[in-house]
Every structure is written in C-alpha cells, then in structure tokens.
Amino acid sequence: MIKKLWQWVVYLxxxxxxxVIRHRVTVTRATVVVVLLVAALVIFKILASTGPVVPSVxxxxxxxxxxxxxxxxxSVRRQWTGYGTAEAIDSANVPARVTATVTRIPPGVLEGTxxxxxxxxxxxxxxxxxxxxxxxxxxxxxxxxxMAELDTQExxxxxxxxxxxxxxxxxxxxxxxxxxxxxxxxxxxxxxxAAERAVLSVRRSRLxxxxxxxxxxxxxxxxxxxxxxxxSSVDIAQKNLDRCFIKSPIDGVIQYVDVxxxxxLSLGQRVARVVNLDRIQTPLSLSAKARSHIGVGDxxxxxxxxxxxxxxxxxxxxxxxEDDPATRTFAAYVEVVxxxxxxxxxxxxxxxxxxxxxxxxxxxxxxxxxxxxxxxxSIRTERVMLVQDDLIHSSLISEDYAFEGPLPALGxxxxxxxxxxxxxEAGELVVLNxxxxxxxxxxxxxxxxxxDTLVDQAASLxxxxxxxxxxxxxxx
Length: 476
Fold this sequence. Notes:
Blueprint (H helix, E strand, L loop, with lengths): L1 H21 L1 H27 L13 E7 L2 E13 L1 E2 L2 E5 L4 E5 L9 E2 L4 E5 L2 H57 L5 H54 L2 E3 L4 E6 L6 E2 L4 E6 L3 E9 L11 E6 L6 E9 L9 E9 L1 H4 L15 E18 L7 E6 L2 E6 L1 E7 L11 E7 L6 E3 L12 E5 L28
Parallel strand pairs: 1-22
Antiparallel strand pairs: 1-21, 2-16, 3-12, 4-11, 5-7, 5-10, 6-9, 7-8, 9-11, 12-15, 13-14, 13-16, 14-15, 16-20, 17-18, 17-21, 19-20
Helix pairs in contact: 3-4
C-alpha cells in the first residue's frame, strides 16, 4: 500500500516536472505575478501599520460657514427699461422746386460728406428762368414808365387847373364890370352876353381839366396794381432762377444723393438727404405704468443692442401725451447731444450714436428713496435666508422692482439688485448665496463679506461638494 502510494507520488512529480518543462513560459509569468501580489500586500501592511491615527470628531460640533451681509436701507432710483431706434432731430429731404435738367453736381457733394447751410448741392439749367426774369423785369419797367408818365400828366393837369381858376376869376370880374356899365347905359346887351359866354367857356375848360385830373386816381390805382403784380412776377422769376442752385437748408452730413448730371427733375423730386448729427433723439417705448414715475429731465443710459459696449448718456426732453393701446406703452423722447455740439472732448462714444441704431434705454427716476436692497443671487423661490442666533431662517419677501448697476453703499460686487417692500428688516443678516444644503433651523457660522472675498461654504461635513446656486436660485 505504501509502495503503491509512493509510486503515485513519483508519478505526480514526474508529471509536474514534465508540465513545467512543456509550459515553462506560462509558469514563469504566473510566478512573477504571485511574487508581485505578495510584495504589494506586504507594502500595504507596512504603510497601514505606520500611518497616523485620525481622531474621531462629533459631526454635531462642526458648523457650516456662510457668507452674510447686513441689510441696510440704501438710497436708490427706480429704473425703467425701454427700446427704440435713434433718429436725427434735424434732417432734411432736399427737393427740386422747379422742373429742369441737372447740369452740374459739385465735386465735393458725395454721400457721407459734411456740408454747411447754404452750400450748393446741385445746379440746374437756368436759361429759361433767366429769360423769364428778363421779360418780367421789362414788363415791370414798362409799367413803371407809365406810372412816371401819369405823374407828369397829373402835375400838368394840376397846374392847368390853377390857371383855369385864375381865368375864371378874371372872366367873372369882367362880367361884373360889363354889367355895371350896362346898368349905366355905358354898354349894351351884346357886351354883357359876350362877357357871360367868356365865363361859361372858362368854366367848361375848367370842368374838362378837373374831369381829366379825377381820372388820374383810378388810372394810378390800376397801374399800382399792375406794378405790384409785375413785381411779384419778377420775384417769382428771380426765386425760380435761384432755385436752379439747390442748396443745403441745414448743416449736416449727406446721406443720399439721388440725381445725376443730365437727369430731368420734376417739381418736388428729392435731390439729396442731409442729416445733422449734433442732436440725436430716441423715442423709447416704456411700459404704461412708468408714466407717473418719469418726467422731463430724467437721466437715461442708452446701450446699443448690437454692441453692449457702446453706451450713451441722455435726458428725457419730451413725453408723448397718449399711450399705445395695442402695446400698452408710451414714448419718452431721449435726446443725446454729440461731442462736437457740446464742445466736450471726453464724449467720443456719444458721437458714435448714429440715426437708425436700435438701442435699449434705462431711465432713472430723479426721486431717490431709502429702500432695502438685496442682490438677485440672494433670492430663491421668492425667499431669502437670514441668520438669526446662528440659525438659518427663511423669509418670504415682497419685491417691488429690479435694477442693474453698481451699488457701492452695500460693499458688494454685484450689479443686479432687487428692491424689496417687505420680508427683511434693517440690520438683519442675509445669506449672500443660499444653497440647497441650507435649511431652516440649521446652525451655521455667519461670515461677513469683506471686499470680494468669499468663504468656501460649498463643502459639506462629509467632504462632498454641495450644490452652489451662484445665480440666486429661481428668482421672481
């Protein structure tokens, strides 16, 4: 039995040796793997036995640190946002006021070129109008000559009337003398009749002169009316001649030149458009409820919707009297004065506001009242979190309105704010970034914000990262 057992052992040893010889590569690799695993276990055992022992800490004794700020009343001005398109206050579509052919366009009259008031933009063919002016002037000269002739005639008739008066006086004296002689029988009836005929002849001649002189007045009135009409004709002809030189009615920049040399223009046809860039206005469409809060003189900050980096300062100059019932908005006209017009050198961006630019505008009320203001990021689902006696307490707030811009009085870097009407009292500690890891009644360690330094309040007690709602959660 023992011998047979030994034979089996020898047989197994020979079989193992034969297997190792046949599979020596595989056996070598397995041996190396086993040796490496044993070495790794030995090293792990050594490191574990020599490592420091972490003392156990009660989790209840750890408090999460949260950034807080003290709520204080701050003087703020309400903002109203509107949109509109900039337009030039002073602009002109220059028309042709006569029907003529374009003969010349001055070399400097090009689109985008600055022009001054009275500068010639287009010259028209003026030969016909020059002839019309000469004809009107000649007709006027003829009427004035007839008036001079009438004046001469009137003077002559006046002098003749004076002579006729003297002749009548002499004839009457002669008639009286002859009648006296006839009564004394020194003259006969024939002499009396002759004297009477002489008186009648002088009277007849005087009546003719008086009648002729009386007709001078209506003739004068007729000539005066004719001269007035001819004078108007001369003025019209002169203006039509002047209108052949089409001039810019304002200072500005040429937007369009609509004609070419040789083109026949009709009355009223546009020749060019000139835009003055010194004063630009924007009719901002604002909510109808802003009407009672906005007045003339309020400050407005305009921003280009295409390039938010471009901003302009303006003021409300006019307010439309009616609301648009379709959009429930009204127009507030905001005027921006360019750097050239205001003689200011630090307003380069204001000069860039061109007509046609679509802008958004923020109107600031002049009335600034102390209100409780919190950053938008401090609001979650219409609530803010307060720290009272080192415990978290959420409070439902009532928001009046929101506005954008820096607020140095609170010492926070935020630019988006909410103005509250209730929910927070002055002096309370408000959590700056309320995360979902905070809940009512949770003990915390409040850390007042110093400058822009924030504590890491996202780390939870077990070392995992809590969700950080950097935007303030769901804001109203």
